From TrEMBL:
Protein name stated in the entry: non-reducing end alpha-L-arabinofuranosidase
EC supergroup of this enzyme: hydrolase
Gene3D superfamilies for the chain: Glycosidases, Golgi alpha-mannosidase II
EC numbers: 3.2.1.55
Family in the record: Belongs to the glycosyl hydrolase 51 family.
Pfam family, one: Alpha-L-AF_C
Catalytic reaction(s) noted: Hydrolysis of terminal non-reducing alpha-L-arabinofuranoside residues in alpha-L-arabinosides
Originating organism: Urochloa decumbens
A GO term, aspect molecular function: alpha-L-arabinofuranosidase activity
Coiled-coil regions listed in the entry: none
Keyword Hydrolase: yes
Length: 475
């Protein structure tokens, strides 16, 4: 049964109540109150999707990490039970984060959202392993068959068994699913490698175009099994993450590329999203950008949190029933959104404060084909630092007209945004007055500064390879 409710006023604390004038027991299965106007009519709040679009995401990793595993396999995400008519989906208990989900946001909706965002879907599936139980490799075949069916649902023709189910849901054309992650944080588990190879070989045979992601970290030593990418997760304090800005400098270029699918500063340094956390993360990202020949994708995690049901801090975007805001970590990422497809340049820092500085440089073009040299510098220290930017190898001079400096900082390193002060810590842009100011810059203590220096010519001679697939996002 569907019914349209039309509000006659605004009440931010209103809620849906279903009552009866007769005494008795009534059983309800699925109940949902949805706004009439959602993004492209697909059920997502337009204000929250706009926050995603402003990050210019190139991929979407779903349906999560630990959510995929479950504390126990009986509570793991099951893609088959998350498709078809919403009211017929059984739902399941997400025992890792302790909430019931009706799976109205299911496998199909994630594929659809990726398409709506113009982002490549990255499907993370269960490989027969949860936090507390595992399927022996000898009997993993039904799980492998289940995943092959999920790929046919996404990529198969409308005449195929599972492709026809997708077509019946309103999407006859296949989804461009290119990436799959075989499990989540399972590398150390007893049956991971055995199970992994079963999935890898079956998928490679059926879908040779799909890129497969291993849970095992290949940043410091070569993997002992085949993979197209390896997954890298890091949650730590701000000082440690800042020190990890050179992590991938030493990674072998002969092995699979890295997918940094979960990174964040957390616990005491992060609060509910602090400036300090965002600066350490920015320093880490400069290292990923400089090593984008080996780091193919990166995403902050978690992406969203409902302020009425927090299970983890911090998160990039905070919302309740009617409002939202971005944490400093969200705003920090907006200064990296032009990195995808840009030209990466080597950077050398010569300063007595070099131990507290991190930097990266790219050249990129805006929608009007204007060329810019973007230099991002993190000052993680307590001192104001004055540096001079000099370039070698650019056949283009800096034009002060159109050059800008954007600074993310605040009065206290633990400052946060909130519903009452959503823009307390956000990037502030200003025009640079002349060429001298463009090349000699002042870095505020505990700040991220992004200089967009307009180039007088578009023809460049660079010292780096073009980075075609440096994907930037958030899940």
């Amino acid at each position: 049964m569907e019914h349209k409710l039309v509000a006659e006023g605004t009440n931010r604390t209103s809620r849906l109540q279903i009552t009866t004038n007769k005494k008795g027991v009534i059983w309800f299965d699925q109940i949902s109150l949805m706004p009439a106007d959602t993004y492209r009519g697909h059920g997502f709040r337009t204000d929250l999707i706009s926050m995603l679009l402003d990050l210019k995401p190139r991929f979407l990793r779903f349906p999560g990490g630990c959510f995929v595993e479950g504390e126990w396999l009986r509570n793991a995400f099951r893609w088959r039970e998350s498709i078809g008519p919403w009211e017929e989906r059984p739902g399941h208990f997400g025992d890792v984060w302790h909430y019931w989900t009706d799976d109205g946001l299911g496998y199909y909706e994630y594929l659809q959202l990726s398409e709506d965002l113009g982002a490549a879907p990255v499907w993370v599936f269960n490989n027969g392993i949860s936090h507390h139980d595992e399927v022996d490799t000898a009997v993993i075949a039904p799980f492998v068959k289940d995943v092959l069916d999920s790929l046919e649902f996404a990529k198969g023709s409308a005449n195929s068994t599972w492709g026809s189910v997708r077509a019946a849901m309103g999407h006859p054309e296949p989804f461009p699913l290119k990436y799959v992650a075989i499990g989540n944080e399972d590398c150390w588990k007893k049956h991971y490698r055995g199970n992994y190879l079963k999935f890898y070989n079956a998928i490679r045979e059926a879908y040779p175009d799909i890129q497969m992601i291993s849970n095992c970290d290949g940043s410091s030593r070569r993997l002992d099994h085949p993979a197209d990418l390896f997954d890298f997760h890091v949650y730590t304090d701000s000082r440690t993450l800042f020190s990890m800005r050179n992590t991938f400098d030493r990674t072998s270029r002969d092995g699979p590329k890295a997918f940094v699918s979960e990174y964040a500063v957390w616990q005491h340094d992060a609060g509910k999203g602090s400036l300090l956390a965002s600066l350490a993360e920015a320093a880490f990202l400069t290292g990923l950008e400089r090593n984008s020949d080996i780091v193919q994708m990166a995403s902050y995690a978690p992406l969203f949190v409902n302020s009425n049901d927090r299970k983890w801090n911090p998160d990039a975007i905070v919302f309740d029933t009617w409002q939202h805001y971005g944490t400093p970590s969200y705003w920090m990422q907006t200064l990296f959104r032009e990195s995808s497809g840009a030209m990466v340049h080597p950077v050398a820092i010569n300063s007595r404060y070099s131990g507290s500085l991190a930097a990266s440089a790219i050249t990129w073009q805006d929608s009007g084909n204007n060329s810019f040299l973007r230099v991002k510098i993190v000052n993680f220290g307590w001192h104001t630092v004055i540096v001079r930017i000099s370039t070698i190898g650019l056949q283009a001079s800096v034009n002060a007209l159109g050059s800008t400096a954007t600074v993310l900082t605040s009065g206290n390193v633990m400052d946060e945004n909130s519903f009452s002060h959503p823009k307390k810590v956000v990037p502030v842009k200003r025009q640079l007055r002349n060429a001298a100011e463009s090349m000699q810059v002042r870095l505020a203590p505990h700040s991220l500064t992004s200089f967009d220096l307009a180039l007088a010519q578009s023809k460049l001679v660079t010292l780096a390879e073009k980075n075609d697939e440096y994907l930037r996002s958030e899940i």
